[in-house]
Design brief:
Mean pLDDT: 84
Largest sheet: 7 strands, mixed
Distance between the termini: 54 Å
Bound molecules: adenosine-5'-diphosphate, magnesium ion
Structural class: alpha+beta
Number of strands: 26
Radius of gyration: 33 Å
Length: about 750
């Protein structure tokens, strides 16, 4: 029996918790395919035999997470979890904020509620409430982390908090130390802000789109076979059905226009507020808005397979992933924790073993730092200094560093029509030094026009033949020939035994004649007789046209010249990429002459032409072997292997086929400026994360010497904690202002 079990997990908020859960589950031989989603707080796995689930549940609980069996494999909303977190965070602050203010009042102005002892008792009880009740999950996971020697960021928080709280205990037992209990409460409260923001972040970008999804149509007007209209819920729509969309309405689902002319607002995907003209044969995307005309649309996708659905899934996956630099920080804590424990211990030993020196030092310091009191015992100072070291070293803003920046960065991308596959994409994309551009559909519009054709056959027959073969292909050239012929009201013929040779052409059988259609290279490889057309091919190529040859039974019967124009900002995009210091390269399966003409227009000097898809792949590999970090930009037609091979594959186009697997970045919309924007956004986001990691440690680390010397006033600790959290959040939010 194989059965998939899905558990909902509580308290699994970081990669290392997830790894621990995975480890526990993998200990069972009966369990396979363990899959953890941090975003949805679920773990799923396959059971080959029955396992005592309650025992398993206990084991997972032992590592600090609680799990419930969830009855469906359906994604569980993390809204409940967010609510619980929010409640914890609010409660934490409701107590620690007044406590912090009270502490300031005491230290700066000597305002005590009742006596100093009463004031301390209030601190102690309330802080204990925050630390042990609200912060319970943190302490529990710290405990298990310490037992298993598997430290994570939570362990740092737990250790710092317990250190801070122990000063209160010492005071209770009459040892003269400065009390850090309020700091302990503060550490916990800041920690929950981090966790809360992390949850919000993971729901944020997809929520924006989901909201739009909500706004979109829920019903579609289907025209049935009898020509009658009928309202049908979107989820019940079938591929091939015909629907009617009125001006001003959202297009309910992905499809192809079969009647009508209009312009469509695709701003929700592209971020560019320009209207895109739609006529017969054009694809439309569900959730975009039809502006002017009545459109008849043939449904092309089911609701789970639409562009929107795939984009939402992609964003969700992106947020499940972790950015490697964060994993690095997680790993660093493995060393940081013992290092701090040792430092604290050394501090204690230093004070205890050198009392004479210590007293001299204190006397000297008390002159400059008035809060240092000389009437404490050396033991008291030793305890205080070592605990203070533990407390101040706790980087409570560490958990904020990556999530806040990613939240802003990914969100900004979504608004600009840039979709990152995962956090790692951002980390790699900021290192790109070479951008390889495909020609057709990337640099050019990918909507070529037929300009001329030459044949010795009847001209209508010839074009009918060409269109018959091309009607089988999705290639931009094929579409242009088909639509050219359709305008002339020529109906394509029936085609048999066809084969598409990607990046070269098509082979087929029409009325018993074997037809080849494609570029010169294809004809040479197939040893087809050019039949005197070679001169004209050359002439067309000189003019910058792409030439398609057509052969019947291995003899050329005519040629078609098509012309594709540059996208209007390709020149600017290439220029700005170069200004960033990035090498720009162009690849194409088209002939060298027209490649050179296009290359000359956009000022790309490095051009590779006449390529088959595997040649494109090899060129990428060659660059990688030289140590370059490559972005390949393409439309996925005849370049998907290259896209996959590149360090970053960037799929571009407002078409519907573009959420393909080979792309790590998807640019919706036509503009090549998106490439520049993605690189800029990655750079900015990544450097923010690095920056944040620095600030998370900065204030804490500079106060470590104070702590070691017994000079750490609780107010300093409080300020350090607050500053690092505020700096990190403010720093991430500044990313919002970035001009792409
Ligand atoms: P690019 O690299 O510029 O995007 P492709 O690799 O898609 O171009 O195609 C390379 C060449 O192969 C085209 O310029 C064209 O000559 C030929 N070709 C490929 N597919 C077709 C097709 N379906 N119909 C006609 N020509 C085709
Ligand atoms: Mg292409």
């Amino acid at each position: 029996m194989k059965q998939t079990i899905v558990f909902q997990i509580e308290g699994m908020s970081c990669v290392s918790c997830a790894q621990n859960v995975e480890k526990v589950l993998n200990e069972y031989s009966e369990i396979s395919d363990v899959r953890i989603s941090i975003l949805n707080k679920t773990v799923s796995f396959k059971l080959t035999e029955d396992v005592d689930l309650s025992l398993l549940q206990k084991k997972v609980e032992n590592i600090g997470c609680s799990i419930h069996l969830s009855n469906s494999s359906h994604k569980i909303s993390n809204l409940d979890f967010i609510k619980v977190l929010k409640r914890r965070m609010m409660l934490g602050w409701a107590i620690s904020l007044p406590l912090s203010l009270k502490m300031m009042g005491e230290r700066f102005f000597g305002w005590y509620i009742g006596s100093e002892n009463i004031a301390f008792t209030i601190d102690f009880i309330l802080a204990a409430l925050v630390i042990f009740v609200i912060g319970f999950p943190v302490l529990r996971s710290t405990y298990y982390a310490l037992v298993r020697r598997n430290y994570n960021m939570d362990s740092l928080i737990g250790i710092g908090t317990m250190g801070a709280f122990s000063t209160g205990l010492l005071r209770l037992f009459g040892i003269e130390v400065e009390s850090f209990v309020v700091i302990g409460a503060l550490i916990i409260s800041i920690h929950f802000v981090g966790n809360y923001l992390k949850e919000i972040a993971s729901g944020h970008a997809s929520a924006t789109i989901k909201q739009l999804l909500e706004l979109g149509a829920k019903q579609a007007r289907v025209i049935n076979k009898q020509g009658l209209m009928q309202d049908v819920p979107i989820k019940d729509l079938l591929v091939g059905q015909i629907i009617l969309v009125e001006p001003g309405e959202a297009i309910p689902i992905d499809g192809v226009v079969i009647e009508g002319i209009s312009a469509v607002d695709e701003t929700i995907f592209t971020g560019e507020s320009i209207l895109i003209g739609k006529k017969c044969g054009d694809t439309v995307i569900g959730a975009t808005i039809n502006q002017f005309g009545l459109l008849k649309i043939r449904v092309d996708k089911t609701v789970d397979d639409t562009f929107l659905a795939r984009i939402v899934r992609m964003i969700e996956d992106a947020q499940d992933s972790k950015i490697p630099v964060q994993a690095f920080a997680d790993k660093a804590t493995v060393f940081f924790v013992p290092a701090i424990l040792i430092l604290a211990l050394l501090t204690f030993v230093f004070w205890i073993t050198s009392p004479v020196f210590a007293i001299d030092l204190l006397e000297f310091l008390s002159y400059y730092f008035p809060w240092v009191s000389l009437d404490k015992s050396i033991f008291g100072v030793a305890v205080f200094a070592s605990i203070a070291t533990l407390v101040i070293a706790c980087p409570c803003a560490l958990g904020l560093a990556a999530p806040t920046a990613l939240m802003v960065g990914i969100g900004k991308g979504v608004k600009a029509g840039i979709f990152f596959r995962n956090g790692e994409t951002i980390q790699i994309a900021q290192k790109i030094d070479t951008v390889v551009l495909d020609k057709t559909g990337t640099l050019t519009t990918g909507k070529p026009q037929v300009v001329d054709y030459i044949t010795h056959l009847d001209r209508t027959d010839f074009m009918q033949l060409a269109a018959s073969v091309e009607s089988l292909s999705d290639h931009p050239i094929a579409k242009s020939i088909v639509s050219y012929v359709r305008k002339k009201k020529i109906v394509p013929n029936k085609v048999d035994d066809f084969k598409i040779i990607t990046g070269q052409g098509i082979e087929a059988n029409i009325n018993g004649c074997q037809v080849h259609l494609g570029n010169i290279r294809f004809f040479i490889e197939q040893q087809i007789d050019f039949g005197g057309y070679i001169m004209q091919v050359d002439a067309f190529q000189e003019m910058g046209y792409t030439v398609i040859l057509l052969a019947c039974d291995f003899k050329c019967v005519g040629i078609i010249a098509v012309h594709d124009t540059l996208k209007n900002d390709s020149i600017e995009a290439v220029k700005s990429l170069k200004e960033l210091g990035i090498k720009v390269v162009m690849l194409t399966g088209d002939n060298e002459k027209s490649a050179k003409i296009i290359g000359g227009q956009v000022h790309v000097e490095t051009i590779f032409a006449d390529l088959k898809p595997e040649d494109k792949l090899n060129i990428i590999k060659t660059y990688q072997a030289k140590g370059n970090v490559i972005a390949m930009v393409g439309d996925g037609i005849s370049d998907s292997e290259a896209l996959e091979q590149a360090d970053i594959g960037i799929a571009i186009g407002s078409g519907i086929e573009i959420t393909n697997k080979s792309a790590s970045i998807t640019l919706v919309g036509e503009s090549l400026m998106g490439v520049l924007k993605s690189i800029n956004l990655s750079k900015a986001t990544f450097s923010k994360i690095q920056n944040n990691l620095f600030w998370a440690f900065f204030y804490n680390v500079i106060f470590i010497p104070f702590a070691i010397l017994g000079l750490l006033h609780p107010i300093i600790a409080e300020i350090a904690m607050a500053l690092s959290a505020v700096t990190v959040i403010a720093n991430s939010l500044r990313l919002k202002k970035l001009e792409l």
